[in-house]
Amino acid sequence: MIPSPASPLASPTTAQRSQPPPIPLVAPVTELQPFPLADQFDPALAAFLDRASDQLCHWLAGAGSASPLPALNVLPAVEPEALGLPAERLLADLQRVMEGAYQPNHPGALAHLDPPALSSSLAADLICAGLNNNLLAEELSPSLSRLERSLCSWLARSLGFPAGASGVPASGGSLSNLMALVVARQSRGLNLRNDAVVLCSADAHLSLAKALVVMGLPPSALRCLPVDGRGRLDPGQLEQNLLQLECRGVPVIAVVATAGTTVRGAVDPLSSLAEVCQRLGHWLHVDGAIGAVVALSPQHCGRVEGLGLADSLTINPQKLLGITKTSSLLVLARPELLPMTFATGLPYMEPSLGGSHGGEAGLQGSRPAEILKLWLGLRQLGLSGIAALVDGAIQRRQRLGSLLAMDDRLNLLPGDLHLLAFRPHGLDPGGCERWSLQTRQTLLDQQLMLSRPLYQGQHHLKAVLGNPYTQPRHLEALAHLIHTTLTDG
Ligand SMILES: *Cc1c(COP(=O)(O)O)cnc(C)c1O
Q1: Which CATH number characterizes residue 240's domain?
Q2: Among residues 327, 344, 379, which one ends one of the domains?
Q3: What percentage of the chain's residues is helix, strand, coil (to nearest 5)?
Q4: Out of 18, 231, 333, 371, which could bridge 266 as a Cys pair, Cβ 3.0 to 4.6 Å?
Q5: Cα 174 to averaged position of ligand 1 atoms, centre (Å)
Q6: Are residues 229 and 276 in the same domain?
Q7: Contact partners, residue 303, CB within 8 Å, separation at least 6
Q8: Please, which pLDDT band fits residue 41 given cuts at 50, 70 and 90?
Q9: Are residues 298 and 371 in the same domain?
């Protein structure tokens, strides 16, 4: 009898399984394989992931006992050795890198817009890696592409955009801002105009300057208008500038308003700016990388009123909401402009069920399912949890603000969100720089970390109150130490 040829998909016999495979898999199955076993539950992989997550949980648990900014440590070797390493060594090396990492879970981590990771988003990131789907095309991410479209539409509606609005995830707010400007330029027929300009406030984010570099425009194409005493763009002044540009025949790609500036958390008057843009026929992009999530809090949504009147909006759930990085989205009132700008056709892919493929809705081609951790994170929080994160941050800002305001030697910059920047009154720039350096170190010695932005020619100290682990006692200690630096100096 002629033996029938074995199907390539048939389960191998035990004898076959123990033969050396063509790639350097390590036998036996109790050792971690380069790729997970495909035909049975992989106990070595499960044990490895268990131990890695155990290691992570211990690192998180140690947050309170070390400084947010660890001392320099020795990194393990970077180059692969001649022979692959066993699980034990991999985990030990991983641990050394972890020990040198910035610790966002420390209650004194108040320097930047990088809060602790939301636990469900952390798990979703792991699953995302394991699924290894590709949002480039629907056939490489069938359920995730649909999840992405649905969640983007829900988010657009929840932020106050009209029906039909939606968006696309991007790997960071810089990329969301870039895509917004590219879409605005294309939709206004200005792709070939190298004299076109973008208007924003002097406090707008540096990523706009980068975007212009990518778009082939000179630095002078970014017209930064001065801010008022509260750090905001003045609608009257914007209107004047737009009318002057029109008189001179200078084409405008977009006006960029900021909902939450980087140093003081100021929110430009969005409704008034939208009214001006609408009346004069200009595209309004809102950079809400910091502040857009505030629209999800019933108590504080008034602080970003008018968000939904924009043509486009950048939102970074990786900031205040603690979704693991990166998590940013570009939301558009007319999402069909995305494929009109970026679609190339994907002739090697089956058609998408939902119109365009993920890879045609933005600049990125292959991209991970970042939507998964945002979706799971929002579901874990619920609407009340989302609001509580926003409300808690603004409350801590108010608390620290009133503690510091008791000392009339300090100049606190007004702001609208959960950021607080300040400097002593009456110091020249050199004095401010020295004070900020010394004070930052004094605070770091007590495991309290602030940042030291140079703003309007002076160094400030800045606290970002987005860390939910920060308690009133930390804020009191912070205010007390700052008070002593003024007394001693
Ligand atoms: C953080 C930030 C950005 C850029 O976001 P990335 O994710 O760092 O690229 C843009 N605008 C504002 C106002 C920001 O605070």
Answers
A1: 3.40.640.10
A2: 379
A3: 45, 10, 45
A4: 231
A5: 6
A6: yes
A7: 267, 291, 294, 394, 416, 417
A8: very high
A9: yes
Amino acid 57: pLDDT:
97
- What pLDDT digit, counting tens, does each position of 215-230 carry? 999 999 999 999 999 9
- The answer to whether residue 43 scores a pLDDT higher than 60 is yes
Question: Mutation test of ligand 1: which of 181, 207, 258, 294 has the most ligand atoms closer than 8 Å to its C-beta?
Answer: 207
Assess whether 369 and 425 both reside in one domain: no
* Helical packing angle, 371-405 and 472-488, nearest 10°: 50
What angle do helix axes 119-131 and 43-61 make, rounded to 10 degrees? 150
Distance 179 CA to ligand 1 centre (A): 13
Instruction: Looking at the structure, tell me whether residues 405 and 270 fall in a common domain.
Output: no
Query: Which pair of tokens denotes residue 370?
Result: 């970042």
**In a shared domain, residues 348 and 479:** no
Find where tokens 């008022």 sit: 228
Is 289 touching ligand 1 by the criterion CB < 6 Å? yes
pLDDT, average across residues 88-117: 96
272 lines ligand 1 (CB under 6 A): no
Confidence label for 353 from pLDDT (cuts 50, 70 and 90): confident
3-state SS of 82-104?
CCCCCHHHHHHHHHHHHHCCCCC
pLDDT for the residue 24: 56
- Whether residue 103 is contained in a domain is answered as no
Weakest-pLDDT range from 117-121, 376-380, 483-487: 483-487
Please tell me the predicted confidence (pLDDT) of residue 1.
44
473 is a domain residue? yes
Q: Closest Cα to atom 10, ligand 1: which residue?
A: 173
- For the Cβ of 327 lying below 6 angstroms from any atom of ligand 1, the answer is no
Whole-number Cα distances in Å, 217 to 129, 185, 238, 356? 37, 12, 21, 29
pLDDT digit string, tens, across residues 171-217: 999 999 999 999 999 999 999 999 999 999 999 999 999 999 999 99
CA atoms within 13 A on the CB side of 192: 1
Number of domains in the chain: 2
CB of 339 sitting under 6 A from ligand 1: no
Ligand 1 in contact with 325 (CB < 6 A)?
Answer: no
Report pLDDT for 29: 64
Give the nearest ligand 1 atom to 175 CA. Answer: 9
- What global pTM score does this model have? 0.94
Q: Assess if residue 38 is contained within a domain.
A: no
Distance 306 CA to ligand 1 centre (A): 20
